[in-house]
Amino acid sequence: MTDIPALRLQDIVKTFPGVRALDGVSFQVMPGEVHALLGENGAGKSTLMKVLGGIHQPDEGKIFIAEQPAIMKSPLDAKSKGVVFIHQELSLADELSAAENIYLGELPRKSFGRVDWKTLYEKSDAILARLKCSFDSRKLVGDLSIANKQMVEIARALTVDAKAVIFDEPTASLTDAEKVVLFDVINDLRSDGVGVVYISHRMDEIFTISDKISVLRDGSYRGSLVTADTDEDEVTKLMIGRSLDSENPIVPAKKGPIALEVQGLSCGDLFQNVSFKVHEGEVVGFYGLVGAGRTEIAETLFGLRAPSAGKILLEGKEVKIASPIEAIGHGISLVPEDRKGQGLVLGMNCKDNMTLPQISDLTAGPFVSDGAEVAIFDQYRDRLQIKTPGWRQKVGNLSGGNQQKIVIGKWLSMAPKVLIVDEPTRGIDVGSKAEIHNLIRDLASQGYAVIVISSEMPEVLRVSDRVVAMFHGEIIREFTSDEVNEDNLVQAISGIRTTKVA
Amino acid sequence: MAETRAKTIGQFLARQGILVAFVLFMIGFALANGRFLGIDNIMGVVRSSAILGVIALGVTFVVISGNLDLSVGSMMSFSTIVVLDLHDKIGPALAIPAMFAMTMALGALIGFLVGYLKLNSLIVTLGMLSAIHGLTLTYSGGKNMDIDDKAGTWFSFFGQDSVLGIPVPILVIALLAVLLSLLLSRTPFGRKVYAVGGNGVAATFSGIPRARVVFMCYLISAFCVAVAGLLQASRSLGSQNTVGQGTELDVLAAVILGGASLLGGSGTIFKTVIGVLILGFIQNGLLLVGLAFYVQYVVTWVIIILAVWLDIAAKRGRLLSPIA
After folding, report:
1. What tens digit of pLDDT does each residue of A317-352 get?
2. What pLDDT sits at residue A433?
3. Which of A73, A176, A346, B58 has the fewest CB atoms within 10 Å, counting from its CB?
4. A327 interaction partners in chain B (CB closer than 8 Å)
5. Mutate to test the interface with A, among B9, B184, B206 (most CBs of A within 10 A)
């Protein structure tokens, strides 16, 4: 190991109209070091990475690679200089083979510009073997699992003599087993003397994998910590500038009458023979792996999918729900899992997004009543403590936590009987997470029947009165909050049946 | 301070680049030809832009909803031919509503295919462009259509008369622009159009009947085409089968020049009107400075491509970008 940083950023300043996104940020990573970069949404992590990747040019400041000044003109240029990105949103061509993706743009050539397929596959297989991947590099990327796609992306990074590799939220869609493989790869990179920058929201991962932790807040650098000498509290404090809001302890719900009952509901291959009840004033958590059928149940209850069998009863009466409009009419609301894709129209302002489901009722004569709209917006902005300059602000400019509150406000303003929240805090920073958890508990105590679907076990354990564990489209077990713990929950969602279905 | 001011001006230019270019264009033409800014010429441009403008108003709804309508040119030929033919057969008082019904039936068909069956609007309306042209030729037997008694019909009112000194086509487009602008910007339906175009999935998840909104947009577009056909037929009292040919591109040009995104979710009626006027004045200016009319085909599209590029560059913050 040398004393020369693999990558060093010095006093980087970047301003956008009205925003100083980066305010003199310095940051460095040594060869053979895994350096976690942390910050709330909007702290400047993405902008910093875009500057590093040549997508944005810094207004001030310098970038050094192995202490040589470098100017990044584009992501390809950055790569040729040895700075490689592994993105959270995979940027692979599904219709090409793994090998073609790995060497995209740099395919080995024979005479007359013909592709040297033999060399291509040999080199690709060698790289994949180094990553301990068992699949053939001739395989189409579209046929690979998400974890293996990520491996292809990493393999791509290894085709150049990488000085620094940046992982941006790499575990967002990986299972625990796949994470272990990823961490092995990162450890290998570390021992090869590569500088690794690891961006993530997940504290447990950061403490598992990193050597050092640097924190950004409001576009400026707030300090670095040696991972071995610190703890979550210290990091959190640095990140949000205060101690974390304490989470309200769970007040056992005052169970009201049954709001929603589902009997033997099935939808093709997606889920089968699902039965459960949700009382007023109660939070029921649905836990399971991605693909276990949780989201599909929510979509069926919201009229987006047609059930193939079974009954849905609201307050004891059977209902047929053929469309979201009907679901809304029955008092069911869904905060969907993909906030930007399904929850919001990003180009619209805060108020318009919030009033969208009831816009037809907010009229004076034939026209939309601005007053009625703003009144609703103000009410839920105050109630949910949404931080926004005003209702004219485009939703796309808000932080993830505030965006999520807009979606929640949109559905609360419909006065639902049953509120379904799918992945309530996906991609949301720790500060806002606690707020949203408290909010969900508050809603239950106000008498809403709430269903929370989540892939994060701590979240499910924290907010739920009861937990439903799903595996492969079936409910494996139902737990009360007294009996549920991490161990039996993990067993249940891995498909291990310990007890009879409750 | 000076730096911030320079930046603000830069931002203004980036945002209003089209208007600035338009003003420079106007000044250039005015210097080149003194008649350009005369009242007569301006009224002439507005009047000759009216038919294009009426169609563009309807297409604005379709574009904001995230779709295209390339069938409007063919559809206008159809409505013009039909109303002229029926004029002599059943009289103008019945011919006009009959023509509106037939044109809007075509719009309903497109709306059904794009909205309810969720077919790609480019494919559907490109197909309809051709199919409706065929329908028009079948209807007319390929012959030009003329009203027999051109002097003795009140039908010429819409295209040729004036009320209070203002030509009727200008009154029609003004009235329609105000009504449609209110519909788009002030009613729940308008809000739904923006939502469907801005993010159709999120709109569905908010309980908005996406299919019906798209259907209605095509119906509005067809209604505007019918109005344009009426103005055209009334102005000329006779027509070829191809009278609307190519209009769809000019309409699209005007809507884009106005700043509506082809991806949907943005645009206004006011901006479209500006786009129509820009297009009208550019084409008129090119003629006045003595260029042959076919030059405008080239110049118009150079300007549109420039406009779209500047628009995207302003959003990206620089002229060339490694990412889209």
Report:
1. 999 999 999 999 999 999 998 898 899 999 899 999
2. 82
3. A176
4. 207
5. B206
